[in-house]
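Let's sit down with a protein and look at its sequence and fold side by side. We need material for that, and I hope you will provide a protein of your own picking. Once you have written the record down, we can walk along the chain together.

***
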Amino acid sequence: MLSKPIPAWILIGGFLLAGIAGCVNAMGFLGLHHQALSHMSGTATIISTDLARGELSLAAHAALVLAWFFLGCVLSAVIIRQSVLQAGRRYGVALMIEAVLLAGAALLLRQGANAGDYLAAVACGLQNALATTYSGAVIRTTHVTGILTDLGIAAGLGLRGEPVDLRRVTLHLILFAGFLAGGIVGGAAFLRFSYDALFGPAALTGLAGAAYALHRHYRLIRAT
């Protein structure tokens, strides 16, 4: 159960980040390698199946995507240093770094360089670790498996007549809607602009990071 009401910045930020992840992931699937970039379950399976088929180069590429995603999670912990989602941490910095990574991925992928996938995976890993937990509720913004699992559990509890944390359900529905909407926008943008479409989520992430950093700076000035 959530211990307190969910602030609007959590709901808006969660929707925004889930949308960005859905957008990037859709572009990964539509791109050259048809590769998931925001979640790694399918990537691990790709590694296994490519190894089973003897496709060592494809398996190596998928393994590098997974490794760079992991490094993005490590980078997030280095920047933010805490596992509890709380206003005042270095989220603005992390988001602006994610924006740079996504822009770099767009530039590399325009040239057909595999390294573009790796930068996009770093960005997604950074984001996934950035939005870790809030008051006992795990916030997942780069995949929906956990979200659907939690919603299914809530539905089962409701059918049994047991208490359901409606605030948590609302949060998960918002995250799911954001990821789905981002996938639609990202897919449509990729079909029209190819990898240049990645500049969209890069710009949005950068603006969100800058806005958060300025807002935090303003609050610190007022507090002094």
User: Anything to note?
Assistant: Residues 8-223 form one domain.
